[in-house]
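Chapter review: from sequence to fold.
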Amino acid sequence: MRPGAVTVGAVHGTALVLTVAGFASTLWYGVDEPGHALAFGVLIALGELARWGAPPVPGELPGREPAPIAAAGALAYALLGESAGRATTHGVLQVIAVVVAAGLAGIVPHIARGTGPDLDHLARRILTVAFAALCFQPLYNAGELTLPRISSSTGGTPILGQGPSYALYLLLLLVLTALCDAVLGATMLRARTRYPYGPLLRDELRALLGIGSAVCATGTVMALGVAAAGLWALPVFCVPLLLTQVSFRRYAAVRTTNRQTIASLARATEIAGYTAPGHAHRVAALSGAVGRELGLSGSELTVLEYAALMHDIGQLSLVDPVPEGATALLPAEEQRRIALLGGAVVRQTGVPAAVAVVVERQADPYRDQPLPARIVRTVNAYDDLAGDSAGGALTALERLRLSTARDHQPKVVESLARVLARGGVTPVPPG
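The token string follows.
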């Protein structure tokens, strides 16, 4: 069994143990404050029902929070200490039971449509909420953590209350919870994809600055709002996050439209008979995998994908098509001319200027190229040379290794070889 499978299995197993313990404890001892459990459960279930329904952008890794309202509601319940000035008594195991039960209720319709979340997402939610609840509920229930108005139930002076120290503790807990979620997400992606851990963790941390920070802030504000005003605070404080979710949906729709436009433009060379069917999409998918292997992330991968999709667009200016579109077999000067023509076309499409630079410089000696251009050149040459047979793939890699003096950076070639040794990638369907 692969080490990655062991890691994912351990995460799933831990989440399952916590779930069983939460349900067993709740069934045995009963539900404390059933009204609060029901209110937060309904909020989490509705948040799951309203989860981000748009499909992920092809080529991107999973892991971004698709149900921010549900995540904020779960975090708020984990951090709930009071309701309308009265102390609550629910504990960590009840938090887990309510979050899991409500989450399962909310995802049933998605599962029925075949769009339900994967087990990784569910396990990540359970472990993150359990971490937050474990850091808050025992201290609060023991009277060592209180809001400024409430004296310690034990009669002594609270260690972490009152006033600024309470707020500072909540802030620290939010930071630790967010880091826990990011590390957990990167670890599971590393186990699934075997990409380098550092770039995956950077991607997760960047996500915290977007929807992640909104989830943490809203969850905390909801918990504090319920403490002051009761359960009526829940719908009020959900509105800002709902608006944020709508904005992110629109942003995702714009990104998807942009990518579809670029993918359609990339197909122009195939439709005109200049390149083999699926060539641009194979190069884009494989370039993305090599880019992650080399540590690229975020906007760098977006530039790499767009450049890989449009790397052959300059061939449309040729009077006579290159046989099978294999520009890797052309003389260096002809490759350079096609690259410059392609860059000129790309600059008219409205994509970032960095994409045009990659397309223009893909035929330069690798020492003069930025890393994305090195990747595109090497992967394009591999796809031109490999053909459909395994023997062709081995021959292509060998030819690339023999061209590392000028055309292909050895590090990129070896990264490509490692990606192929793991089975490569599934090409993104054209269009």
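Two observations follow directly from the output. The two ends are 36 Å apart (CA to CA). DSSP finds 16 helices and two strands in the chain.
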